[in-house]
Amino acid sequence: MRSVLLALIVLALLLGGVGVWWIARSSTPTPGNGPGMTASLEEVRATPTSSVPLAEAERGGQPLEYTMDGDVKVFRLTASAVRWPILPDVSVVALAYNGQVPGPTIRVVQGDKIRVVLRNELDQPTTIHWHGLEVPNAMDGVPDVTQRPVRPGEEFSYEFTVTQAGTFMYHSHYEATQATRGLGGAFIIEPKDGDPVQADLDIPLVLQEWGIDPATGEPLGDMPGMPGMSMTNFFTINGKAFPATEPIRVKQGQRVRLRLINFASEVPHPIHLHGQPFKVIAKDGYPWDGPIAVTQLVGAGESYDLLFTAENPGTWLLHCHVPHHTTNNGEEMGGMILQIVIEPASG
After folding, report:
1. How many CA atoms, within 13 angstroms, populate the side-chain half-sphere of residue 310?
2. Rounded to 5, what percent of the chain is helix, strand, coil?
3. 245 lies in a domain?
4. Do 246 and 92 contact (CB within 8 A), yes or no?
5. 335: burial class by Cβ within 10 Å (0-12, 13-18, 19+)?
6. 3-class secondary structure, 296
7. Reported pTM
8. Which of these, 31, 103, 110, 285, is most buried using a 10 Å CB contact count?
9. Are 302 and 262 contacting, i.e. CB atoms less than 8 angstroms apart?
10. Is residue 306 within 8 Å of residue 205, measured between CB atoms?
11. Main-chain phi, psi angles of 158, to 5 degrees
């Protein structure tokens, strides 16, 4: 009996020592995790953001205008930090293109020659990767592989001819945290001979997740013991969390094309539509005679095009079917939900 008691005392002392070591380790700032990894919580708290301005744009994903230089369409993107409101009382300290989250939607026609001029107003280098696009190697946007990173205050021009058609995306490729904090957007290419899919509404829906302190908007950093996996507590569609998401309004009988884009999330999102089924018509920009379904899983780096006819009048939901993803900081209903309002044809 005495030997058992002595063993328990020794075990308690050992566990206590491990606990003290873990607390000391957790409270000691650690060096950066390197490119592609999420910053540690201590690093994030030390980052001054008091001077980050509130975004002027009210909506993300707005169409990006262009100018012409001969036969080249010229677009301009500026990367900078902004405070982006995902709810009326919650803003995130985001990284944004042209002051909006998600970044502007680039729409071009197959065969267009384009130039995208990136200006870096961040306090760190950056690049743009054209996700899924067939571009010259020097235009692929991979830092220290296909190009030198664009340093703060510099500009870089990406120039290529668009050869494909479909739903694609663009995003920072400098560090994982730049994309997860907002640096990305939709890149939509119309077929040169006209789109065989006719729709009355054509709507990109960009899915994002955030791990922030709701009081300050600051990132929460990594999950304990899981470098590179951030703690997420807010979820958005086109830069807003429910009930701030913008409803889709459609007349009964109209055809709706939804372009689901997941350029930055760390987990898949099973997107579910209430009230009527949809047809999956494309994946990652390529036509696909996909299933008729009511839920489509959208993994990180994937896009899916869904087509449905609004037959059933009423107010219906489209949402992620992961319960945690339909909350705002753990409170329902919120997050990745939007309303689809189908008005009667005679209304």
Report:
1. 25
2. 10, 45, 45
3. yes
4. no
5. buried
6. strand
7. 0.84
8. 103
9. yes
10. no
11. -100, 125
